[in-house]
Write a structure and sequence with these properties.
Rossmann fold, globular
Length: 151
């Protein structure tokens, strides 16, 4: 028996939401800096490949906002900073035919990624929780925790 799942996609760009609408139950235009949801209103909040785009002084506020709306779990999947991964992306981008802007952005994104210790400290500082953190293939990190008062 399949469980019914309601998916909510959030983006600041109406154009991107329009492209994603067919794969989502709801497409919501908004920002992670001020999520348009009530406290404890979303069972599982997933933030994927986004956190590294924020300035260091914004990361804690984004994490706190994810935690605010989560009822059961917060999961952040992001890049693990690595010079090896950055060099590999750059080298692979040529035979893959990536545009020079994509090549530059990809390398910059990898270098703006996190170490496991940095991500752990950011979550602890933002929400006072000790998260679970795992390294994943492809120079990725997954950090998760249950918000305070989670069922």
């Amino acid at each position: 028996m399949a469980l019914p799942i309601t998916t909510i996609g959030l983006d600041e760009s109406p154009e991107l939401l329009g492209e994603a609408r067919s794969a989502l139950t709801y497409a919501v235009c908004g920002t992670v800096r001020g999520l348009p949801f009530r406290d404890d209103s979303i069972d599982i909040v997933l933030c994927s490949q986004l956190l590294h785009h924020f300035a260091d002084d914004e990361v804690a506020a984004v994490i706190a906002e994810l935690d605010r709306v989560a009822r059961r779990r917060v999961i952040i999947a992001d890049l693990r900073r690595s010079w090896i991964a950055a060099a590999g992306f750059w080298l692979a981008s040529f035979p893959l035919g990536f545009h020079r802007v994509t090549r530059h952005d990809g390398v910059l994104s990898v270098l703006r990624g996190f170490t496991a210790a940095e991500l752990r400290r950011a979550v602890a500082a933002a929400v006072g929780q000790e998260p679970s953190i795992e390294s994943r293939p492809g120079f990725r990190l997954t950090v998760s925790w249950s918000p305070r008062g989670a069922a």
